[in-house]
Amino acid sequence: MNNPAFDLLMWARGPGFDIALAIFIGGIVLRLTEIIILGRKKDMAPAKGNGFLQGLKTIFSRSVPRKGLIKFAPVTYLGGYIFHLGFFIAFFFFAPHIALIQDAFGISWPAAGRVIIESVTALAVLAVVALTYSRLTDPVRKSLTTFDDYLVLLLSVLPLITGYVAVNKLFGDPTMMLAVHLLSVEALMIAFPFTKLMHAVSFVFARYYNGSIQGRKGAES
Amino acid sequence: MSATLERGLNALREQIDAPVASFFTSCVSCGLCAEACLFYRETEDPQYTPIKKLDLMRRMWSREFTLLGRIGGWLGLTKPITDADLTAWEPLVYDSCTMCGRCTLVCPVGNDLTMMIRKMREGMSASGHGPVELIGAAQRHIDGNSAMGDLSKAIHAQVKNAVADTGIEIEFDKPGVDYMVILSAQEIAEFPDVLGAMARIFKKAGVTWTISSEAFEATNVGIQIGSRDIARTLVQRLVDAAEKLGVKGVISPECGHAYQALRWEGPNLIGRAYNFEVIHIIELLDQLRAQGKLKTKGMNTQKLTFHDPCQINRRGGINKEPRRLMNMVAENFVETEDAGTMNWCCGGGGGVGANERAAPLRNIAFKRKKAQIDKVNPDAIVTMCAYCHHTLDNVLEEFNMDLEVMGLTELVAEYLDDDA
Ligand code: SF4
Ligand code: SF4
């Protein structure tokens, strides 16, 4: 039996995934090492507040926008939230994903219903479209945007689209579409450490540093 | 490569540490920092987006501190920083940033952009870039006793006036007292009433103090221009004077960057903790209030609002103290929108106020502050930084706004209960 779609799926599930995972993890370790190795000097000014605790707090609290700012960049704020939440829900609460995680790590949690998964996926895709549009048209975003930013948007939206197509058997051979879905995830993993996707890990450090610097002074962050 | 360029790049390189690397790694170019910045908000010019002001530093980090960037460099895909680059960035780094700190509180990934501007200025100034006025002020302060020139005679004259006004003795160079008081050049030159105000408040509270004739000036142009060497020299003078007098503490005056310099950067500049505490005058007044040593009588009935100096509140952590004092003496105290941590900068901080080339841009950026004030429509503005005071006085006049500006210490002293 010679089924190229099946072969591709098997490759993507096996060696393909292993290669992507190795680059993903190895790359993240490399990038984090590049950061941490630089160190920072001990602060000799007597502290007024607790920098450590405020650093930890800021990792979470910075997820909430400052009062009154959303109206100045609604597409960036709302698009950003919808994309991140949609991607997160589709990734962690889709039943087949949970099954994979259970296979690999032996842990599982309740899945979200199909309607929810499909709605958040569609919303996340729309959010990426809106974010791309604002990068093309808004003067500030336009002036900041580089190839990296478009690549990141593309790599983030492909797994959503291919997953949606594969699950709903919208077109093409379902086995093939599943293989393509997996490959798109692997492309995301490989690019992750070397593009701005890396923010999804390094933001923890950035927010911690910000909060701890401000917190030592007893200032808000 | 010229020697100055090399010195500048080395200075910049030295500034890149783990926080900086984590910030550049995390930036998603969302542009939200622009919305926080008074210069972008009032001009809507994308070049004033905070992260763009740091682009040279980002380029250096990427080329030299990341594997991919290094490979790109070997392949000739990226270019090293040139003197022309530094010249092009000078107006962005010095004229369009007051180091107000708002962007730092807005960036969703948590980048401390203001701290990076501070760091980038190290590279700029070491390579010979920086506003001439700041370079001149630094020279004057290093050669003499103040950024404004020789203020030795002026301080003695002002002290004499304060003694005549209040009848309270103020002694220079008195060892063993509680506090050494230092003043900003602006206070000595423009707002000397603060001396009499402190004399009266401290007398009532039983606080002993002195002024050092060797080191009485608090401003530190080193942290504005971005020169650790200059900043260290100026901090060291104050530390030497305070330790020689054996005081318990040094009172940092109503001056934003002076507080930042002495309280937060100073120990790191001189490489050790001090043998005395540094306390901001408003922190001290609030402490005295809490201890029942500062009592007032009567209240100001005007509609007063408060302007938070960036380096004292947002970047200095003194937020509630002035409000407690305001409530003691102001019957009709109205806060502006965004007051407190997210207050808008007066536009004069970070050396921008002294920089003539920046004046037109500064006046445009001030419109943000103006809008904030206009909404409240107060009779007067109270603040706790003499340089904010000076800037507000000047721009309000420029905009034909007839508004009084006052220092919080003087306001409190006005209502001091002399009988209590
Ligand atoms: S707000 Fe932060 S993440 Fe967004 S562009 Fe500015 S520095 Fe980058
Ligand atoms: S510190 Fe203030 S003035 Fe400077 S870039 Fe940030 S928001 Fe703008």
From TrEMBL, chain A:
It comes from the Bacteria. Keywords: Membrane, Transmembrane, Transmembrane helix. The keyword Transmembrane helix applies. The chain crosses the membrane at residues 20-38, 75-95, 115-136, 148-167, 187-209. This is Nitrate reductase.
From TrEMBL, chain B:
The keyword 4Fe-4S applies. InterPro entries: 4Fe4S_Fe-S-bd (IPR017896), 4Fe4S_Fe_S_CS (IPR017900), Cys_rich_dom (IPR004017), Helical_ferredxn (IPR009051). GO terms for molecular function: 4 iron, 4 sulfur cluster binding; metal ion binding; oxidoreductase activity. Pfam families: CCG, Fer4_8. Residues 89-118 form the 4Fe-4S ferredoxin-type domain. Keywords: 4Fe-4S, Electron transport, Iron, Iron-sulfur, Metal-binding, Transport. It comes from the Bacteria. PANTHER family: FUMARATE REDUCTASE IRON-SULFUR SUBUNIT, HETERODISULFIDE REDUCTASE. This is Heterodisulfide reductase. It comes from Magnetovibrio blakemorei.
